[in-house]
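Record 1 of the preview.
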Amino acid sequence: MKISMKKIFVLIILVQAFFPCRQANAFPDEGMWIPALIEKFNISIMKEKGFRLSAEDVYSVNRACMKDAVLSFGGGCTGAVISPDGLLITNHHCGYGQIQRLSTVEKDYLANGFWAMSRDEELQCPGLFVTFLKRMEDVTGEMMKGISPDMDNEARDILLDSNSEKIRKDAVEGTHYTASVRPFYMGNQYFLLVYETYNDVRLVGAPPSAIGKFGGESDNWTWPRHTGDFALFRIYAGKNNEPAAYSPDNVPFQSRYHFPVSLRGIREGDFTMIFGYPGTTMQYVPSYHIDMVKNYINPAMIKIRDRKIEIMETAMNTSPKVRLQYSAKKSGIANGWKKWIGENQGLEKMQTISRKQEYEKQLTEWIGADDGRREKYGHILPRYAEIYPELKKYSLVNSITNDAFFNSGIEAVGLASNLSAFAGMYEGSMDPEKRESYRNAMLAYAGDFFRNYDRATDMELFVSVMQLYGEILEPEWQAPEYIRLKKLCGGDFRSLAGRIYDRTIFADQDRLTSFIRDFKRSGARELKKDPFYQLAESASLLISERVRDRLGRLNAEIRELNRLYMALQMEYNRDQVFYPDANSTLRIAYGTVSGYKSADAVYFSHLTTLKGIMEKDNPEIYDYDVPAGLRQLYEEGDYGRYSQDGQLPVCFIASNHTTGGNSGSPVINADGHLAGVNFDRAWEGVASDMAFNPEQSRNISLDIRFALFIIDKFAGAGYLLDEMTLVD
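->
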């Protein structure tokens, strides 16, 4: 694939917006790079840092390479193939929801772990899929056909959508592949990405949560870590090794490439490469955006999630059943909550807003020195200043309303919102067969919901969330039904909770199941009298009628401003190389194994060991209760071939630039071997989505030797190592 230099907005270095006094080549570890372009722009730097392979070993469309062993796991994480027979490794927390769904109180795989001792024992994971990138191609020229500078935003978007659809269809015609066209550099460049998806994925092994989630939310986003955060799955294929729906007749997927697994381990200063699917970063946004996130959205979201987490933890500590029901929910809520806290602290420490503002002053002066630049770019920063006050208001209403009622907030309200379409179809003209199919789908959905639902916990959520919703949002932006209920109870939502939960059908599985099963046209009128249905409808209408359209228009204008602002920054910093923001497409990041200074007189080294797990061991605290089998192995000191300097490594840190979506990404050493599995970032550098801090931004990874030790010594599933390629 030939790519002109004019199409490439090259990569590497810290944006001078954050560190304007630095030279452009000061921090080579920052960046999430496009793998198809590393031959032109990255491989020489990677080799200077110690990498011993070629660009084609990393990415190629002509032969098997590392790219063929890296997969998107479930659409939100990353995984790596580690055997010829489709065995893959990812994070325990990436597979957590699947493990929970496969668990029962009698067979609690979260608490006790799971290990298939033969392929016949591997467990089907309904709904789980993995996706491989087959190829990527710069299609900027094709996307820009018919686009003119004087087009309005709406016409431009329509033509871009049309061009994208044609490119996508042409790319996969006659194949079972899928494709998408994604914008890079805020819409200044476009790539076609062609994918292959496998839908038969089975659980092979997972340690108990006391290993896979050791430290729980207390240790999340922090270093040092002592978490065995991994799980094993296997991809199955149908005829000709192609994707197929689950069938007992499917066979293990034969991968084009799999990662050799390193027994050599890591040392400080070693080269590391992360290969995965990072989600979203915002390195090039203006100061107004950082201010909105740091000072407006994050504090409100932290406040409401503080209380949700407290309620769930209290309930989970009273019942093993509730703990199983709410483990995944609480983890999902807490993950964002703790990240936002660290993000705000990091942005403050780096003075990101003031640095951005200083940079914007420099840009303004540069724009003003030339008539052509004034005409092309002069409106951008003033328009940002006009839009963001309104944008932050609509964004807050949208975020808080969704988190209160539809995103693990008041759960019965969220359930009610999903029945609105069901009621609507009976008021329309849908044919009976489709109605019956939808009825069965809703019955299945309700069954899944109540499997992980506790009424008492939800009542506590109702009381607290209703109170906080009213405190955070001004009355003009509150759902009308919320205002009515508040007046009804005089603001004492606890006095109202019992009455509402007794009246609603959405907190009682038997009542809801009967209602769905016996539903007729007249049932829509009955449904609309339900208090939680009314609350869900009111909140939904607030968003759809007053927020969504305006928020969409504001964001559309912001996207167009961002496109021009990105072009402006590239023109202003002609000698600087840029990497594109993460957008859930395959990327590489490279760096070195490295400790860091956390605070005055506090330095964290790069490696943790099993000894550290034992030092944290506390049977009285759920998150630190070490399994007896692991205690015994520690006391015996038999670490086999997995030790280093007499200790058993557990986790390590490096300077790779990562974000959400990189969970489960393979950590590759200088020889292309799997040295670890990425799972987190250190607290001090968690703001790297918006401002990379080279002194403290560290990704946290599981040392692969600890995973091998757990599989072999702890679980007794050493047969799995026989299908891997282990290298010293």
